[in-house]
């Protein structure tokens, strides 16, 4: 038997084991999912991702059999950044400053990507890599909270659950305000940091409240789309 002509031999990307066309499809799916998740959140269907990527549902299923697999691939780098934010906060010589900086940084990550805002308030048991990084960040967060309390600036009754509650609230504000009032989350975070501070603790300046006109636009938008569709 003779080998097929070289132009008929499926090309493979070095080190991937995937044919070049399969690798291109995977990249297109990931890019499409990132776009949709960032603007619409994790409620986007796999069918919508396939349509956005310009591939069939069967192609999508071959690359990512479940939504959890796709979420794991899309948000691996963002979860790394989330874990790095805790590490950077621990490296701050002022633990209280590190804590407030961490809270602001993570909430900003949520505001920049609605999908990631959802990821931080959900769990994906089958997304092993994602959940492993989350677990690492959680342990570092416990350490950061303990150090901030040792300074006397973080309230003694603050718990790590309060961070989850804040992230849930922030995700809701981001989803509700959308592009109509995109900086509203900063006001929420400013108020929450004040509530976490012990008496006498230095606190960041409170960001300005959103203008009545932009907040009204956000309310009109929410009334038209409904909470689940924002």
Count all strands and give the number: 0
What is the number of helical segments per DSSP (H or I, 4+ residues)?
Answer: 10
Q: Give a short account of the largest sheet.
A: none
Which H/E pattern describes the elements?
A: HHHHHHHHHH
- β-strand percent reads under 5%
Radius of gyration over all CA atoms, rounded? 22 Å
Overall geometric form: flat
Helix/strand/pairing category: mainly alpha
What is the CA-CA span between the terminal residues?
Answer: 60 Å
Low-confidence runs = 1-13
Calculate the mean pLDDT score and round it.
Answer: 88
Give the fraction of residues assigned to helices: 55-70%
Note down, in words, how this protein is organized.
With 230 residues, this protein is mainly alpha-helical. It is 67% helix and 0% strand. It has 10 helices and no strands. Helix 1 (20-40) packs across helix 4. It is flat.
Describe the structure concisely for a colleague.
This protein has helices at 20-40, 46-53, 57-63, 67-91, 95-112, 114-119, 128-150, 160-177, 184-196, 212-225. By secondary structure, it is mostly helical.
